[in-house]
Amino acid sequence: MEGSYDYVVVGAGSAGCALVERLTRDGRTRVLLIEAGGSDREFWIKVPLGYAVNFANPKLNWNYHTEPDEALDGRSIYWPRGRVIGGSSSINAMAYMRGLPNDFDDWADSGATGWAWRDVRPAFERMEQHLEQDSDGTRRTRGEGLLPISDLHDQMHPFSPRFLQAAEDCGWPRGADISTATGEVVGYYRSTVRNGMRCSAADAFLAPARKRGNLRLMTNAVVERITFDGTRATGLHVRVGDKSFNVTAGREVILCAGAVNSPKLLQLSGVGPGEVLRDVGLSVHHDLPEVGRGLQDHIAISHVFRAVTPTLNNILGRLPPRILAGMQYLAQRRGPLGVPVNQVGGYLCSDPKQAAPDMQIYCNPMSYFTAPDGRTVLDREPGYLLCAQLCRPTSRGEIAIRSADPDAAPVIRPNSLATQYDKDGARRAIEIIARLAAAPALRAVTQERLIPAPEVQDADALMDDFRARASTVFHPTSTCRMGRGPQESVLDARCRVHGLSGLRVVDSSAFPAVTSGNTNAPTMMLATRAADMILEDAATGDHERVLAYAS
After folding, report:
1. Could you tell me the fold of the domain covering 153-189+299-390+417-469?
2. Active-site positions?
3. What's the pLDDT tens digit per position in 503-526?
4. 223 annotated as a binding-site residue
């Protein structure tokens, strides 16, 4: 694997897989894709309901933890990130949500020119293949992209429609396809599933690219630092096992390592806030103060209810029906194991006067809780979860290297609920859950609320419960964000690092701000659109240009 390539890409996750598929299409451009993890050929990766099994699997996962978060009762929060081919798209819950138009229009307004809704919508459409079914069961395909977006409502648990009726009871509109929503809507989640199996970014994008002779994939490889010749990135220093070596990028080094590891790698390479680098004994190659800063994430609260009608607990919480479900899945690739747990939900306005939704809601037809170590603990009795999160939090945290050791986990400071808007949003999330639970369609099938306990009723006590239990829903972004200049951002609007040449960051860390929903879809969209920019710049020689600091 040593040698020279046109592009060297770090990270075979959602962004990296989508990016290299586009870069290698001509059959001539030489691309090396480097992944810290190993094979994704694991049974429980492919089973849609099996994602909980791998949620804390150290073989597939970086298993990060945050620093104690003051706003969340000083808790250290578990942060799983994929360390496997496919990255987090191999261990996530498979929900596909583009985000809302105002998310991307706000990106453009913040300095990411060319990333408004009118610009990004075609990129979404190019990568999508919608596998749909009509009310009469007729199946049809819409779109010619590589990524399947499946309508699985006919396989979802019979409890799930009760949530949809409850939402309608509350006045929220129901839609047929919430994955492409542009406003307030509830419905069945669509998922990156094909033929009853997870379709990760590796399955959709990397698999066809690996058939081309101009792509090389290196796995179980630790990238220790970026190499430079002055202001130009020239390659990477890599370690595989006990062997270390350099690889050279003739055109560009492209980081697709995610919102945690892309800023970490920049900082390990001497690119970042000078004080952070000097504190761990590193020399400053390029002082760029916003590297690692600007971290955003979605924080959600779940309320757990005991149901008086069957839910998935009746199947998965008991051995005989669980065996039958497994046999059905093995024989047909259908049934409870063939559908992700996030079955219904959508975007809601907590105030009808709002111009755009400010809440995302989930209903899972199963009661469980996540232990501090990431294990999923399932209730044996029937139950369900209602979960809500603020779509666009305004708090910003940071990622910083802990030491100069590439193997050391970085410092993750989410800085949750740091703004009054986010504190108010937490209260509104609790209120929305209460409204839904009180709607006739759910009240009729609910015995009691289990968590928080039924006696926890007043607003302050419920907010105390939020601080004690709320957690990430695994959507970190914006730690290398695009923007106008180096005092407020890391990248220009073409994902190029300010003040350097031959170096880009193409993943969720490039988001100027977190999007309103699940971040996997916009991450792949960003990579799809960035690939076009990279090839355009190669054609004009613009990849050689050192980006001058904006005044």
Report:
1. Cholesterol Oxidase; domain 2 (3.30.410)
2. 475
3. 999 999 999 999 999 999 999 999
4. yes
